[in-house]
């Protein structure tokens, strides 16, 4: 009996040793990546957070419905922890430049010691097609991009996958899960909007009546009015700044000044600026101007910027917010603010009339299903006004939802993350994710 047990132990050790030897002598991660379909190039990049990290380019079709329309190279990063670990897929809505930083580590990847696949959105930074038509910049195409990368990398990372993104990236997470519900096991969109119009209409009343406190909202409004009242002294400072920074606009500097005042309240609440940062109304012009520009810089309204592609998407199908001009009417140079997105930021002819079918498709998916999804929002963030709606009891799915959940950081902003939630809420989120990863 003892000899039999000893033989079993020896056999087990031999098997483990053979497996370890295979793992050590098997194909390297770069070699595995190179062998994936469509991979154009791989380059090792420095990382202080992961065992290995690579910048990868993959050839993607411009048009998935007609692949003869051409291709472009899309960038993504692969940061490796272990083949036995889960994988976090960041569905970035913009450029991936910041993820190249050696110190960068995404929140979920850090929490669960997971591999990272960070995908740059088409038409941004190094993933911008050459001379491509704007018509190929669609939400469905971006979902197909992600699907193709996921499908390829699943042959390497076979554990559970989590898709996640922040703001427009979170919106992309919702889009991806809607078009390809089975690509990932879990989705965690952060501060993700679901707009039903080019100017949705829910942000303005949120800013006027809900965010912050009544005293705080009044303080913000009073500052905006004060800036307009001081136009004669502040406008020359504003014009000088725009000239120095060589900013170009589709309208006059007088009008851009107005738009910056209107944008101030959205930006203030979005980024959680402390109320005590607002100067007193009797402060000198220089103090008023410095704070005003720090919160609402005119470069946002440039007619060309690294985020032009986003403005095209917003005007076309992602939606955006509008401005309430009523409190400022007697001070403004502009007659109306409606249509400012196309007038100022989206190139002429780049976006057809807004189509809300994408938002309806996403909302319909959430209404009729109960995917493993956790939504994170900040209570005072204006984007929370357009968070997706779903009830715990769903007549559509005929029962109580056990998966989809929304967590809102009290007094939180667009910076709301799992780590910023109150401790009991944070523990609940982590526990739920741990449970799903272990199933």
UniProtKB/TrEMBL annotation:
Keyword annotations from UniProtKB, A to Z: Hydrolase, Protease, Signal
GO molecular function, one term: dipeptidyl-peptidase activity
GO biological process per UniProt: proteolysis
The keyword Iron is annotated on this UniProt entry: no
Residues spanning the signal sequence: 1-23
Full protein name: PS-10 peptidase S37
């Amino acid at each position: 009996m003892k000899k039999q047990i000893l033989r079993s132990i020896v056999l087990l050790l031999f098997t483990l040793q053979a497996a370890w030897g295979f793992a050590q002598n098997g194909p390297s991660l770069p070699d595995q990546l190179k062998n994936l379909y469509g991979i154009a190039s791989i380059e090792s990049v420095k990382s202080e957070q992961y065992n290995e990290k690579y910048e990868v380019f993959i050839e993607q079709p411009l048009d998935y419905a007609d692949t003869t329309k051409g291709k472009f190279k899309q960038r993504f990063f692969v940061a490796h922890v272990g083949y036995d670990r889960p994988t976090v897929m960041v569905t970035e809505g913009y450029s991936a430049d910041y993820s190249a930083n050696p110190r960068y580590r995404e929140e979920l990847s850090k929490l669960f010691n997971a591999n990272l696949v960070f995908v740059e959105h088409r038409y941004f930074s190094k993933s911008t097609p050459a001379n491509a038509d704007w018509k190929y910049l669609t939400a469905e195409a971006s979902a197909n991009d992600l699907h193709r990368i996921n499908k390829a990398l699943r042959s390497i990372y076979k554990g559970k996958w989590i898709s996640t993104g922040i703001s427009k990236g979170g919106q992309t997470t919702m889009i991806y899960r809607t078009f390809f519900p089975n690509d990932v096991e879990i989705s965690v969109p952060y501060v993700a909007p679901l707009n039903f119009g080019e100017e949705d209409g829910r942000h303005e009343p949120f800013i006027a009546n809900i965010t912050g406190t009544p005293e705080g909202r009044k303080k913000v409004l009073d500052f905006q009015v004060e800036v307009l009242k001081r136009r004669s002294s502040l406008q020359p400072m504003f014009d000088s700044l725009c000239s120095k920074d060589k900013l170009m606009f589709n309208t006059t500097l007088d009008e851009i000044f107005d738009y910056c005042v209107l944008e101030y309240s959205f930006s203030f609440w979005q980024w959680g600026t402390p109320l005590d940062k607002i100067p007193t109304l009797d402060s000198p012009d220089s103090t008023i101007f410095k704070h005003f520009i720090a919160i609402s810089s005119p470069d946002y309204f440039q007619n060309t910027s690294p985020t032009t592609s986003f403005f095209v998407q917003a005007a076309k199908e992602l939606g955006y917010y509008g401005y309430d001009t009523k409190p400022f009417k007697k001070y403004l140079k502009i007659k109306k603010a409606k249509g400012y997105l196309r007038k100022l930021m989206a190139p002429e002819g780049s976006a057809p009339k807004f189509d809300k079918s994408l938002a309806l498709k996403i909302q319909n998916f959430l209404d009729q299903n109960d995917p493993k999804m956790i939504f994170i929002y900040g209570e005072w963030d204006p984007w929370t006004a357009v968070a997706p709606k779903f009830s715990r009891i769903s007549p559509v799915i005929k029962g109580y939802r056990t998966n989809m959940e929304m967590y809102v950081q009290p007094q939180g902003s667009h910076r709301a993350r799992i780590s910023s939630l109150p401790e009991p809420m944070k523990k609940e989120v982590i526990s739920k994710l741990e449970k799903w990863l272990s199933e």
